Amino acid sequence: MLAWAVLLFVVGLIVGPVATLFYGAFRSGGPGLPDASFSLDAVLRVYASTEYLGSLFGTLALALSTAALAVTFGGLAAWVLSRTDVRARGLLELGVIVPLFLSPFVGAVAWSMLAAPARA
């Protein structure tokens, strides 16, 4: 019973904002304006722009290449750890799951520090 309540709560946290986002995307005016109507103009204007399409294709290329690398290295690590008699097996298993323990915030801070200008 508790699991269903938690699931319903989490679904509500996700569906509510997403539904509001889609509702606002198809409105011709701002939220609460009485003269606003439903229209595809804003959606077509965004999705037909070259800036958006360039970002979309760049994002898709990055996502596909990242997924391919992750599956390749993850499959290789899984095969090595399950099918071979490798030394330091416990250490390697721990090394494979360490990224699950790190918050994405740590990675974001690391990348921002890496891209920061050098100080003399």
From TrEMBL:
<dbReference type="InterPro" id="IPR035906">
    <property type="entry name" value="MetI-like_sf"/>
</dbReference>
<keyword id="KW-1133">Transmembrane helix</keyword>
<comment type="similarity">
    <text>Belongs to the binding-protein-dependent transport system permease family. CysTW subfamily.</text>
</comment>
<keyword id="KW-1003">Cell membrane</keyword>
<feature type="transmembrane region" description="Helical">
    <location>
        <begin position="56"/>
        <end position="79"/>
    </location>
</feature>
<feature type="transmembrane region" description="Helical">
    <location>
        <begin position="91"/>
        <end position="114"/>
    </location>
</feature>
<keyword id="KW-0813">Transport</keyword>
<keyword id="KW-0812">Transmembrane</keyword>
<protein>
    <recommendedName>
        <fullName>Iron ABC transporter permease</fullName>
    </recommendedName>
</protein>
<keyword id="KW-0472">Membrane</keyword>
